[in-house]
Amino acid sequence: MTHLDLSGRIALVTGGAQGLGEGMAQALAAAGARVVIADLQDDLGEKAADALPGEGHGFVHHDVTDDASWANVTTACASDFGGLDIVVNNAGIEITSLLVDLDPDQVRKQLEVNLLGTSLGIKHAFRTMRPEGAAGKGGCVINVASVAATIAFPGIGVYSATKSGVDRLTRVAAMEAGKLGYGVRVNCIYPGLVPTAMGAGLANDVASIGLFGSPEEAVGAVIELTPSGRLGEVSDMADAVVFLASDAARFVNGVGLPVDGGMGM
Question: What is the pTM of this model?
Answer without folding.
Answer: 0.95
